Amino acid sequence: MADASIENLRAEASDLAARFARGDADALAEVIALYALRISALAYRLMGYDGDLDDMVQDIFLAALQNRSRFRGESSLWTWLTGITLNRCRAHCRKQRIRRLAMRIIWPHSELVAALAWRDREIIVLHYFEQMSIADVGLILKKEPGAVAVQLHRARQRLRNILPDELTEN
Asked: How confident is the model at residue 170, as a pLDDT?
């Protein structure tokens, strides 16, 4: 009797995963309802307390939705979602480490940021000091994220050119 119940659960999970992979809107809602708390808990354990947790969970489900055609059913849907969660959390933590390092360098020299041209200053301030994502900066500046990333890279280069030599030797 218990084996039949387990088989029913497996069949339901397999059906849900197949419907999700096909793009069934009802299946997406079911996947979110079924896995949101587990994804949130996993992301929390991986990242620790982070004010971005809700955004991270949304990002994970958005990535799952965008990549649903790549789900081939070789693993369970939970295993696949866990992989997406790990990748997104790793990327987030890597960005946070880079941001913290940049702040340790930039903050003591914030008067140098003020010496930058307005265009460079605003993107440095929004991204590093206000900790906004490139996408959010793009929304504010009415630019595509790719253009923001290029502008941020160039602003960092110009800032590097005016930083004291001992900070740029690495």
From this structure: 46
